[in-house]
Write a structure and sequence with these properties.
Layout: H1 14-50, H2 54-62, H3 70-93
Helix pairs in contact: 1-3
């Protein structure tokens, strides 16, 4: 997929625009990676505490077999966070300018 970039100001050289966009992309990629790792670490703690993989947890949680403990909702949210930030990280890390 190719994307084009438009800027409202023509006073900057193409190289300056490229450098600014590269910096922004690298920052966003790093941020996504850090968030993904954060949520993954939360999931690992829940897995250790409950001696269950996140996949098994999700299956049982969605089937209503685990109850309504707040920690289960936190685990579910952490799993969603891992998936969201992994997707963003994979997209961003695959972009080149």
């Amino acid at each position: 997929m190719n994307l084009s970039v438009r800027t409202k100001s023509s006073r900057y050289e193409k190289g300056s625009v490229r450098n600014a966009l590269t910096f922004a992309l690298n920052s966003a990629t790093s941020n996504a990676r850090q968030r993904m790792k954060h949520y993954d670490a939360l999931c690992k703690r829940f897995e250790k505490k409950y001696k269950m993989s996140s996949e098994k947890f999700l299956e049982q949680f969605e089937a209503g077999k685990l109850g309504d403990e707040q920690e289960f909702f936190d685990w579910y949210a952490a799993l969603r966070g891992v998936r969201l930030w992994r997707e963003r990280y994979e997209i961003l890390s695959g972009v080149s300018i």
